[in-house]
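Run log, item B.
One chain of 446 residues. Sequence copied directly from the ordering sheet:
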Amino acid sequence: MQADVLQTDLDQLLLSNGIRLNVVQRRRLDWLVQRLGTAVLSQGGSVPVRNSGVVIVVEPPSGPAAETLYRSLRADCAVVIPFGENPAFDFFKSKLTDFGTIGPSLDGPHEMWWGGINWRAIAPEGDTRTVAPLRVVSCYPRAFGDDHANQLRDKLAEFQIASDIAPIDTVVDGCMSASEKAAFILRMWQQHREPLLFIKADATLSEPPLLPSNLDCDIAFHKWNRWEMSARTLYIGRSAAAEALLRNWHHIATAYPSVWEGYLLDQAWSLTSSQMSLDTVWLPRSYHAPTEDAGTPRHTTVVHNLPADNADLGPDAEFAVAMRGVRRASRSGGRDSMIVVTSQATATDAITVIMRDIATSDAREVAASIEAVTGAFAADCGGFGRLELSLCPWQDDIRAAKSAAKSANNRIIEIAPWQTLPADLFRAVAQTRDSGSVVVMAGQRS
C-alpha cells in the first residue's frame, strides 16, 4: 500500500511540473525512491524537506543558491537532474559525486543525471552477498605468460566469484589493442548469461566487486580525474543497450586501431547514449584505485597497477581539451549529438539541428525546445531518416557541430531555444536541395 502511495505521489510530482522521463529514467527514479525515500522538487535552489530521500532539481541554482542547496542535502540522499544535458547545471554537479547518467529517447528526450554527497547512500555495505549474478572476465597477451593474472585469479577464487580469465593472441606481441579487448569481452558476453565485469588482468581485489551488479545498470566504468573514461574496470549488463555499446566500441576500435582505448570507449558511449536510453553508472575511484591507495584510509575495491599522480591516462592533449568539461559534468557536449532519432522513412538522409544560445536561455526553455524539435520530427520527419540534435552553448561547439554535419552531408538547421518552430519545419527544409547547407531560423527574442 505504501509503495502505491509513493508511486502515485511521484506520478503527480512529475506531471504537475512538466517533467518527461523515458521508461529507463523512470525506472531509475523509482529505484532511488524505493531505497532512499520520498522524492521532492527543488526549484531555484530552494532547500528540500530535510527527510527527503531524493531531491529533483529542475532549475540550475545560482552560485550562492547552489551552495545553500548543497549544504542542505543529507549525506544519504540522491539528487536527480532531469535536464542534465544543460550546461547550466554543471556548476551544481561539480559539488556532488556523480552516480550515473541515463540517455535520452523520443519519449523522454533529455539526459537524466543522478548523484549525491557520496556513494554510501546507495552502495551495499561491506562485502554483503546478494543474489545479483556476476561473472568477472579478463584477458591479456599470451606473451605475458600463464601467471600474469594469478593475483586476480586467487582473489576471485577466495571471494567465490565466477570468472573467465584467458590469454589471447595479439597482432602486436605483448600489446593488446582496444579492438582485441572489445572482441574478447563481446565473445564472453555472447558465451555467458550473467552480467560481466571486465577487470584488467594485472589488477588485484581488496574486496568483492559487487557494486555494479547491485545497481542494475547497462554499463558502468570509472572516469579518471572525473572526465577520462577508462576500460580497466568495465561492467556490461544483460541489455540491448549494453550490447549496443559493446558492439559500437568494437566497431570504432577496429576502424581506428591507433587511438587509445579510453577515447574510443568515450566515443562509443556518446554514440550509444544518443541513440537509446543507456543507463550508465560512473563507478567510484575505489573501482579504479591506483597502487598507492592500497593500505591507506582510501577505500579500495579494484586496485590497478597505476601511479597516483592524477595524470591523464590517454596521450592526446587535444582530446582532453575538447572533452574534459562536458565529461566532468557526465553529459554530451556540443561536439556530440545529444539525441539521435530515427524515423520510419526509407531514406538514409539525416538532418542535424544545432541549438545555440544555450548558455543564455532558461533551463525550462531549453528543455521545451528539445521536446519541440523531437516532437516535430516524430510528427513529420519530412522524409529524413534520422534527426541528430546537438546543444551548442559556445561558438566553437557550433563550428564543430556544423563541420561534422557537413562532412556527413547532413542538412543543417540552426535554432535558438526561444524560437517557435513551424509544424512543417523538416518538410520545408527537405525541399531545399543542398546537403550541408545551413538553414538559420530567423527572429529575435521577444
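Observations after the first pass:
- The CA atoms of residues 189 and 196 lie 7 Å apart.
- The domain at 135-328 is CATH 3.90.550.10 (Spore Coat Polysaccharide Biosynthesis Protein SpsA; Chain A).
Flagged for discussion on Thursday.
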